[in-house]
Amino acid sequence: MRECVDPIEVWLGGELICSSDHSWQVLETSHPPTFYLPRDAFAAGSLEPARGMSVCEFKGQARYLSVVGGERREDHAAWFYPFPSPGFRMLADHLAVYAGRMDRCTVAGVEVIPQPGNFYGGWIIPSVVGPFKGDPGTLGW
Q: What is the mean pLDDT of residues 9-16?
């Protein structure tokens, strides 16, 4: 995990719903980075609680959020760790979004490519080279 000071933007429904020059970048084996953005960088009303949870063996129990922008709503399109595990405490008050469910996400002005698959939330950026999990046949890596 590393602190990232590149400017990041998230767009949904034709609206800029998040802009921040601070995030946490988490790299997991065979994944592009996942960017965790400060909750207070999101526009008022763009995040709504969603049902469900999942567990990461490293980061802890995740909760989900629906993301709203313009006339568009994406259910369960963001997640966060309300009480992250000790090694990930800096993720408190930060959340990640599925880039493929947004209009677009950019890092340092470059549009990211969403990690393939419906489960993974990585953002493919030019500085990190694959192959990455998510494509057919990569589940067992």
A: 98
